[in-house]
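forwarding from the other thread:

> can someone predict this with histidyl-adenosine monophosphate?

sure thing
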Amino acid sequence: MVKRFSVPRGTCDILPENVMVWQDIETKARQILHTYGYKEIRTPIFEETELFARSMGQTSDVVQKQMLSLQSQKKSDEQDLDAGGLSLRPEGTASIVRSYIENSFDKKENLSKLFYLGPMFRGERPQKGRLRQFHQIGAEAIGPGSASPYLDAEIISLCVNILKSFGLNNFKLKINTLGSAQDKESFSKKLRDAIKPQVTALCEDCRQRFERNVFRILDCKNESCKNIIRKVNISDDYLSAESKEYYVLVKEALKNLNIEFIESPHLVRGLDYYTHTVFEISDSSLGSQDALGAGGRYNNLVTQLDGPEVDAIGFALGIERILLAKSKDPMPAPRKLDAFIVALDEKSLKEAFQILNFIRLAGVSSDMSFKLSSMKSQMRLADKLGAQSVIILGENELSRECVTLKNMQTGNQEEVSINNKDYNQLSKLLLERHS
Ligand code: HAM
């Protein structure tokens, strides 16, 4: 038996009937991002594995368990392709920062506002809302000019406004601050002290997290770990006065923009690079994978990757989760064809093919059946494709150098000249009708 292939687990085809919803989301997101002054950037879908390890952190779940690394068949001359030297990007931030440094953005502008749209890859165990290939809409504001609480408020409100533009309103925004790198260190120490007496009751993963990165325990989905965490009292005494003041300004700016938020001291985020403000937007109707998007500040990442000393903040939204949250919405009506050409014999088919090419170049969306069949079956196809007009061409029309143009809405028919193969009048009529 010949093997029949299926789409790889944790990925999916976006079929033509669903593509319009995707395009709609992408167009709306692009429009809003442009109004906020963000410019699109496109980076490769794979990068050096080390870039991700050094950005997200060796101990993050993404780097430890979910990297999809490339392995080449070539051994000798393309060493960089071998043994996991390259990995598919699990997120966009690290790549954008790499590009920011490599292209010396800091020499060109005080604040670089960049956005991206595209597939990301994580070797996760697939479930509803959790895929191995998923798509993100992300934005990053990097540069000396990023050091302002107003930019934290801008990034958060931008993220919220993009979701609202998709018609989503039932989401919750949680925010927290981790403080500076130094504050984070002290936060980590306090957390370890608080959890230490119960470390043996933690799950195996969390016992390792306790040693390597205690923040990760706060995200554990295991019920017994959650119970332990719930009882840990997290006060903000790990924050310096400066960090506290910064956070107050961010919250004040959000309030002034009427952005509702919940302060969540347990929100620490799964990636190492965060400092100061972190946030997550969730929709409880999505079940366990409820985060529509998330982000935060990462003031030390650019320097950590050997770049200039500049601050940065960003977010990423997951398109598949947005679509799940929107799945109760009616599907948009499929796009209709302007015209369909019905040819009734071989000679007409030849001419019809030329007409089709001409009107398409003029901007009329159109099609035809490339094989001869009865008028009835071609009309049926025109109907199925939603054609607004049908151009009929047979022996009778050819001999008089004209076509019959039928308006499918009114049923009206008229003859249009194609004298000397001049199709201008026909395409003008169609364009007027469908503009
Ligand atoms: P993240 O929280 O790992 O953050 O991912 C952001 C969003 O991507 C999630 O909230 C979710 O909607 C979506 N997502 C993540 N993993 C999956 C998956 N396996 N299947 C489906 N959707 C998924 C980041 O990626 C950071 N780079 C965000 C950021 C940008 N922080 C600063 N700048």
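The chain has two domains: 16-180+240-325, 339-434. thats all i got for now
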